[in-house]
């Protein structure tokens, strides 16, 4: 019994040379083995009919590609026998068996080769190879040249011969391959934005989004492309007038148009978009709730995809006549390990150099969830974002094969970390319970049957937090270059782990508030708050300072050369209590004790000032490169308050607090040694609570009931 595979196929018999069993990727030889149980046919290129023996066929799947037309992947119960087809001797001209690379990738050959010429070379230099293998020029897009070959059976030989001619930077076949998104939580549950839960040993662990929103919530002139499995309209992705902020997007062939998700799948991109841009309500809050979302559906719902289709989609995202995106958010990566595709690396480079009219689009990638000691190749060439849990440690999963249970990838190319949360699942492809709250597709098509998902997770969740922060920075100053935006994100990150950049945390944890202060400083503007203004400015460069006591931060007393900064606050002198941040105490430099906080009454106002020092070198010429007591941008975050605390709360060595903070109420408390929050403590939605010791906020502890 036979089934019709497709109506037209040309049964030509052409002699082909023996194929190589390798190809070149990133300058290295990649070997593969052939899986004869799965084959691919290209309908567009055939003319006569062909039939398959239904008794030995396990599955037939049909896909579409702009260049290839309809193609069919056929799986047999075992290796394909000669009797599988009618007629039995089908030409291999437009047929390819499945290839399994030594990295584990599943690949199918197409009739196309992709390459990038070396400087000074042209296609005429490859004339002999073209003639030998029947190669012709198909098209050129940016620096990527696409060649077409008349017989797939010769494509590996031709591709390898071109690379081995040493006249190209890279050359490889264009494949049909499978790719993976990085698999995977009411507003008060979004601890990663504003931690009001005070988890034990995790006081104030968040990305300082709540504080950042006092500066900006984003501009509708800024666009973030979410390259994933599609994004659809959602009540929490509307503007104040009820209009959708999800623009018309782009879809690879076989997916719904305009970047929308498949009707029965496609929930991953929706979750990422919610983290970036959900409107603020009692249900959910996104990092940049006023910006626009550009959805790009890469077709994760298909088991395979033409690589050139992805190249087109990634370029469309930033192109002025396409998505015109300022930020490209990518919570996906290679299907196996960290090894990436050079074609997609070219698309990343195009966005970074040509996007935003030459200023460069900001490209953000998830580092990956493979427990590796390197991030994915795509993340290496973009802003690489790893995942933290609630305790500011590398995020863990019960499925992880690593002894420390870490799932987030780390490595020397790690740039930033944000919150992905711990997960519990048997495997990354199984059902996982995460801790990140975001939106879901409406109805029953998403992760849940509601409009929200409380269990998103992974570097997939961490990546869009950084994408949203980049959008806020550009909302303040849209004229910043890509490198300037990256520098702001990196230089303002909260350092974790070893001092400075490290393999686990990169430059540190995303700090949205500090980043937005720095973005505002690029406009030579100060931040004005209801309670006064807080500018800080450099007073002098490389000035000799004498610390009579250790100022902390691992620096002993002695003579140092420092850059000196002054911070000053002017607030109404209405006699409330004034709380100034931790660490500003006893260690006095030589110049009149400026390290201390100085307060001066000026009529109805109170002026408070202090100094910060960036210690360059010590008296022996040794590089120090540390802030004392800390970076003044951190001082700006939540370090001064004007409020009357409840009558039962005041200064003491040790303080216990069990109060209720209601909607609209702000409570700040301070002690010289420790603060304990007992079981009666609760912060209602819309309330704000801040507790601080004289030494460091981490001294705040929880009782076991918390």
* Sheet with most strands: 10 strands, antiparallel
Summed up, the helix count is 11
Shape call: globular
Terminal CA distance? 68 Å
- In round numbers, the mean pLDDT is 77
Taking Cα atoms only, what radius of gyration do you get, to the nearest Å?
29 Å
Contiguous runs where pLDDT drops below 50 for at least 5 residues? 1-16, 44-48, 86-90, 183-187, 525-533, 574-588, 590-595, 634-652, 694-706
Strand segment count: 40
Instruction: Classify the secondary structure makeup into a structural class.
Output: alpha/beta
Strand content: 25-35%
The percent of residues in helical segments reads 10-25%
Oligomer: single chain
Structure description:
With 706 residues, this protein is α/β, with parallel strands linked by helices. Strands 2, 3, 5, 6, 8, 9, 10, 11, 12 and 17 form a ten-stranded antiparallel beta sheet that branches. Helix 4 (268-277) runs parallel beside helix 8 and helix 9 (482-491) packs across helix 10. The longest helix is centred in the middle third of the chain and has 18 residues, at 459-476. The N and C termini lie far apart (68 Å).
């Amino acid at each position: 019994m036979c089934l019709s595979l497709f109506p037209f196929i040309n049964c030509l018999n052409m002699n082909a040379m023996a194929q190589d069993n390798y190809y070149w990727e990133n300058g290295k030889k990649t070997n593969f083995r052939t899986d004869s149980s799965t084959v691919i046919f290209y309908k567009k290129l055939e003319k006569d009919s062909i039939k398959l023996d239904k008794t030995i066929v396990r599955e037939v799947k049909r896909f579409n590609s702009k260049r290839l037309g309809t193609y069919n992947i056929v799986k047999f119960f075992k290796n394909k026998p000669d009797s599988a087809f009618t007629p039995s001797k089908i030409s291999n001209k437009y047929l390819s068996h499945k290839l399994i690379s030594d990295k584990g990738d599943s690949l199918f050959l197409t009739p196309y080769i992709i390459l990038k010429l070396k400087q000074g070379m042209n296609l005429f230099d490859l004339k002999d190879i073209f003639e030998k293998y029947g190669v012709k020029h198909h098209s050129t897009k940016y620096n990527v040249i696409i060649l077409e070959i008349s017989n797939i059976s010769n494509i590996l030989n031709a591709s390898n011969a071109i690379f081995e001619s040493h006249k190209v930077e890279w050359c490889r076949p264009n494949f049909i391959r499978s790719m993976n998104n990085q698999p995977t939580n009411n507003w008060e549950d979004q601890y990663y934005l504003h931690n009001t839960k005070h988890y034990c040993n995790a006081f104030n662990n968040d990305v300082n989004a709540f504080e950042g929103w006092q500066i900006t919530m984003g501009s509708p002139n800024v666009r973030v492309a979410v390259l994933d499995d599609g994004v659809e309209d959602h009540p929490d992705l509307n503007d104040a007038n009820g209009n959708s902020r999800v623009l018309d997007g782009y879809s690879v062939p076989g997916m719904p148009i305009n970047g929308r998700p498949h009707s029965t799948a496609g929930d991953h991109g929706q979750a990422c978009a919610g983290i970036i841009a959900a409107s603020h309500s009692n249900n959910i809050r996104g990092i940049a709730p006023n910006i626009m979302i550009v959805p790009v559906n890469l077709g994760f719902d298909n088991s395979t995809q033409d690589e050139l289709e992805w190249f087109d989609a990634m370029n469309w995202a930033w192109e002025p006549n396409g998505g015109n995106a300022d930020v490209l958010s990518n919570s996906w990566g290679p299907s196996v390990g960290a090894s990436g595709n050079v074609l997609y690396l070219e698309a990343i480079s195009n966005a970074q150099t040509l996007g935003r009219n030459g200023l460069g689009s900001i490209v953000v990638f998830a580092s990956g969830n493979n427990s590796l000691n390197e991030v994915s190749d795509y993340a290496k060439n973009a802003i690489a974002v790893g995942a933290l849990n609630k305790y500011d440690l590398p995020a863990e999963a019960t499925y992880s094969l690593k002894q420390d249970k870490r799932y987030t990838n780390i490595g020397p190319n790690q740039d930033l970390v944000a919150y992905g949360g711990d997960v519990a699942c048997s495997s990354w492809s199984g059902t996982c319970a995460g801790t990140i709250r975001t939106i879901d597709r409406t109805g029953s098509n998403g992760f849940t049957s509601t409009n929200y998902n409380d269990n998103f997770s992974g570097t997939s969740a961490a990546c869009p937090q950084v994408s949203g922060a980049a959008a806020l920075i550009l909302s303040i100053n849209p004229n910043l270059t890509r490198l300037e935006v990256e520098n702001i994100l990196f230089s303002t990150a909260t350092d974790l782990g070893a001092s400075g950049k490290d393999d686990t945390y990169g430059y540190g944890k995303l700090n949205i508030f500090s980043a937005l202060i720095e973005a505002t400083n690029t406009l030579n503007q100060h931040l004005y708050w209801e309670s006064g203004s807080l500018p800080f400015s450099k007073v002098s460069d490389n000035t000799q300072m004498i610390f009579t006591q250790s100022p902390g931060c691992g620096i002993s007393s002695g003579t140092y050369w420092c850059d000196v900064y002054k911070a000053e606050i002017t607030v109404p002198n209405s006699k409330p209590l004034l709380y100034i941040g931790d660490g500003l105490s006893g260690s006095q430099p030589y110049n009149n004790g400026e390290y201390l906080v100085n307060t001066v009454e000026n009529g109805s106002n109170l002026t408070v000032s202090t100094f910060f020092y960036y210690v360059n070198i010590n008296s022996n010429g040794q590089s120090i490169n540390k802030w004392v007591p800390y970076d003044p941008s951190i001082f700006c975050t939540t370090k001064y308050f004007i409020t009357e605390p409840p009558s039962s709360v005041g200064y003491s060595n040790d303080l216990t607090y069990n109060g209720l903070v209601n909607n609209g109420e702000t409570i700040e408390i301070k002690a010289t040694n420790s603060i304990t929050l007992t079981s009666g403590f609760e912060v209602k939605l819309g309330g704000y609570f801040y507790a601080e010791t004289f030494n460091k906020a981490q001294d705040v502890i929880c009782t076991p009931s918390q």
